[in-house]
Amino acid sequence: MKNPLLIEDIEFIESNIESFQEHVGNSFNHYMNEWLSDNVKFNFWAFFLAPFWLGYRGLYEYAILYIIFINITSDHLPSVYLAFIFLFPTYLGFKGNILYFEKVKNNIKKGRRASGGVIGIIIVILLQVAVFNVFYN
What we know:
The protein is globular. It is mainly α. The longest helix has about 35 residues, at about 80-110. The protein has eight helices and no strands.
């Protein structure tokens, strides 16, 4: 699959390389290789640990939707639940790197600091506990 980044995106990376390095941190070289590659590469961690990867990368809006949808469908629509529990992580496996790029790019444009990390994982866990208590208590 061809990488969907535009020439403008690549120019934005080049002109803001220090900001990208600050936002991405230790995984900077990995993500630069992914984002600047000619082809989209499958992100195993986004697939295998979807909600935690989303939290770690600061993609909270996707994590919230994932957690709420999983909890809504698990008892009431089991076939939708089973399809979603496989399809959404597969989508993240293929599109997660691009979603993360868009998040970092928007943070840089708006002057926001990097978010996520271990605190992001903790937020996702607390969110799952809260949503579970709402739906099952």
